[in-house]
Amino acid sequence: MKLFPLLLAALLAAVTAHAAPETHWRDQAASELDAARDAVRAGHPGAIDKDNPAFGQWDAKGYEQARAMLPMVDSYDSMLAVVRYYLAGFQDGSLTYLDDVRKAGDQVSVAGWRLDYANGTYRVGAVLSGWAKPLPPVGARLLSCDGQAPDQRLRQRARYFDGRDLPGVRHGLAAAFTRLDMRGDALKQCTFRTAKGEVLALAQHYSAVTAQEGWAMPPTAPVPAPFGYTLRDGLLWIRVSDFREGSQTAEKKEALLEEMRELKDVRAIVFDTRGSAGEDLQFAYSVYTAVTGGLSYDASGAPREYGEWRASDIAVKEMERRIALAKAAEGPDSRQADWLDTFRNQFLMAQKDGRHWIEQDGGLKLSRADFVFMQARLRRFSGKLALVTDENCATTCRDFAEGVRRVPALVHMGQATSASSSYTEAAYVSLPSGNRLQLPMKVMRERPPEHGHNRVLAPDVPLRVDMRNDAAVRKAVLAALPR
After folding, report:
1. Whole-angstrom Cα distance, residue 43 to residue 50?
2. Which has the closest alpha carbon to 116: 93, 96, 139, 95?
3. pLDDT score at 228
4. Secretion signal: which residues (predicted)?
């Protein structure tokens, strides 16, 4: 007779790990918040960065505000919202709380439709079938919800994800517009304009669906194109949007680079980074060098940037993790592992000596204007050069954009990139829930203003077209290329 209760308990635990009483979620949120704060204080460079007093101010203020939200916590998602609210307020794109433990069968509360952003407009991108209440038609333009324009509402949503007031942040959160994270934030009524011009005012009703059902309405974000190029009528168009490690084997990469070095009759080159996935920066630079020869300039006497790593226990553990990964990939005699081991010892020595920072050279401190002044020139290409970015261009995509923008003759087109962060080199810290905190360990110093904290790279020529439409982008780029 005891078998059935045991089986039932096992099934409930397997199907929904998050179906727990509200008090459990409040306790979990408090524990998670405290652990996240402890990690930030123990390992984030901003916590001891005298050049960023706002960081410490938000730590105190944001923590108290997040704690005040605890009585509203009644679910896994509201637990995430409390922790993310605290972290988002630091306005550091490198500081991220990951949703590692969510399962496809866990429930989320949604309003039955998904919002998309494209070409300056918010529209209904998808609806869930079988919804009990009226839903807007796919393609309808969202005018307002509860008297707020979509951007206003998304600014409020951003406090649970990313505190930087950037267009790309708001647009990227469109897909989460109708998801309910915190009790009390539910939409009541939204107004739409249909393709026929009809204005619809619809009451909003939330229902719990599985995460898998919610994922059945995926956002129509740009899909990273595979790396490739076309050469047509003297125009070399290079899609460098997929920088992912392993997207090409080493042999294929080298063969492709050799092929590109031998290209003839190239009069213009476009580096198209739309939809960048971001990891294999070295290959992107190899492509750039293969077709242009790289940039030649005399920077003798130029000042240098530098970085400072925080000498924390978190950094030591991260170096040990990287050493293990290097040995697993390259064997016990890995040169990378040896270098990392030496670097880890610098952290240990700094801690022993009571030093908070380890300084590391960051290269030349040169702005875009400096390269113009130095009359920098490409070694093997003198034609027209363009860079295309969208607002999703972040991390290594943005680094690549910074690099090629040094060419004085280059014209940057498209949308402004995502913002940079002065904090970099992520460690991963496990929190009580099983989710991880992505925490930067290093702060960059003496960077040019255009590469400063939370600065975007603005295009020379904004393209006011749908950046997901290849034909429209190509037409706009060709029209904007210098004659």
Report:
1. 15
2. 139
3. 85
4. 1-19
Kind and range of the H or E run holding 265: none
Give the type of residue at 307: G
**Within this chain, do residues 197 and 48 fall inside the same structural domain, yes or no?**
no
Q: What is the DSSP letter of 225?
A: P
What single string gives the DSSP state of each residue in 61-81? HHHHHHHHTGGG--SHHHHHH
SS3 105: coil
For the chain, which residues score pLDDT lower than 70? Answer: 1-21, 214-225, 242-248, 277-280
Choose the final residue of a domain: 191, 215, 239: 215
Instruction: Write down the H helix ranges in 196-310.
Output: 211-215, 250-261, 281-292
pLDDT for position 246? 56
278 CB burial (10 A radius; 0-12, 13-18, 19+): buried
Burial 153-169 (b: 16+ CB within 10 A, else e): bbeebbebbbbbebebb
User: Given the structure tokens 């047509």, which residue do they identify?
Assistant: 232
Q: What is the CATH number of the domain that holds 438?
A: 3.90.226
Total tally of structural domains belonging to the chain: 4
| β-strands 107-110, 113-118 pairing | unpaired
Q: What's 174's domain CATH number?
A: 2.30.42.10
Give the burial class of 247: count Cβ atoms within 10 A of its Cβ; 0-12 exposed, 13-18 middle, 19 or more buried: middle
Q: Tell me the C-alpha distance between 327 and 335, whole Å.
A: 9
* Amino acid symbol at 291: V
All residues at 6 or more sequence positions from 70 whose CB lies less than 8 Å from its CB, including other chains: 26, 29, 30, 33, 82
- The answer to whether the pTM exceeds 0.85 is no
List Cα–Cα distances, 391 to 84, 170, 250, in angstroms: 22, 11, 30
- For residues 104 and 98, give the distance between their C-alpha atoms in angstroms, rounded to a whole number: 16
Question: What sign does the dihedral 307-310-315-319 (CA atoms) show?
Answer: positive
Q: Among candidates 234, 278, 246, 227, which has minimal Cα distance to 390?
A: 278
91 phi-psi bin (left φ>0, alpha ψ -120 to 50, beta other):
left
Mark whether 160 and 297 lie in a shared domain. no
Q: What's residue 235's pLDDT?
A: 97
Residue 427 CB-density burial (10 A; 0-12 exposed, 13-18 middle, 19+ buried)? buried
Residues 27 and 139 in one domain: no
Looking at the fold, whether 128 and 203 belong to one and the same domain comes out as: yes
